[in-house]
Design goal:
- With 81 residues, this protein is an alpha+beta fold.
- The chain has a single domain, classed as Alpha-Beta Plaits (2-Layer Sandwich), CATH 3.30.70.
- Helix content is 21%, strand content 12%.
- The chain is built from 2 helices and 4 strands.
- Strands 1-4 form a two-stranded antiparallel sheet.
- The longest helix has 12 residues.
- The radius of gyration is 12 Å and the shape is globular.
- The protein starts with a strand and ends with a helix.
- The structure holds iron/sulfur cluster (2 copies).
- One iron/sulfur cluster binds next to loops.
- The site of one iron/sulfur cluster has 15 residues, from helix 1.
Length: 81
């Protein structure tokens, strides 16, 4: 499933540069993840890179977006064109 950023975000910018899919954007005031670009890092990395670097632990699975590994990999490949 895609991940989302909750209200604990401190807008530190640690997550945005590590996303392989450019899915994370500066928000106002909180950062956001574009669900159509988030693959949970499937295709690129072994685990979600944004969660690894977030000092606020505010990046969590979006329960409304349950997706299989195959769906996430297909999204990753589609983003690569
Ligand atoms: Fe980007 Fe990966 Fe985080 Fe999704 S899980 S927003 S693809 S770094
Ligand atoms: Fe917000 Fe965490 Fe990203 Fe920092 S790393 S901008 S606290 S989501």
């Amino acid at each position: 499933m895609a991940l989302l950023i909750n209200d604990d975000c401190t807008a530190c910018d640690a997550c945005r540069p590590v996303c392989p899919n450019e899915a994370i954007a500066r928000g106002d005031p909180l950062y956001t993840i574009a669900p159509e670009r988030c693959t949970e890092c499937v295709g690129a990395e072994d685990e979600p890179q944004c969660q690894l670097v977030c000092p606020a632990d505010c990046i969590v699975p979006d329960p409304k977006r349950k997706e299989s590994r195959e769906q996430l990999l297909a999204r990753y490949n589609a983003l690569r064109g």
